[in-house]
Design goal:
110 residues, Glutaredoxin, 5-stranded mixed sheet, globular
């Protein structure tokens, strides 16, 4: 269930992968033990494929990168934040249930 288009970032690589990106980045704050997080993974794979070259999808595990989650006020997962120009510009908290809300989230921030 791994997609080469979906990147993973930790505290060491977050700045390069997300903050310095020249395209919008949909960041999925998740954890392995989170059922709703695992349930949206196929939708994130689809979003990564649909917007390849226009936007990125990056996953951040809150258990291995708690400082990033704390910095952005993540208190509930899944938390899906869109970064543009190094800043949070939009978000969805919780599992939206399908790919459409995720696609809309990215589309409106291109």
């Amino acid at each position: 269930m791994s997609n080469a288009l979906v990147q993973h970032a930790d505290e060491a690589g977050f700045a390069d992968s997300v903050l310095a990106s020249d395209v919008p980045v949909l960041v999925d704050f998740w954890a392995e033990w989170c059922g709703p997080c695992r349930a949206i993974a196929p939708h994130l794979d689809g979003v990564a494929a649909k917007f390849e070259g226009k936007a990125k999808v990056v996953k951040v595990d809150i258990d291995t990168s708690p400082k990033i989650a704390a910095k952005y006020g993540v208190r509930s997962i899944p938390a899906l934040l869109v970064f543009k120009g190094g800043e949070v510009v939009d978000q969805i908290i919780g599992n939206p249930g399908s790919a459409k809300p995720l696609e809309d989230l990215v589309q409106r921030n291109l």
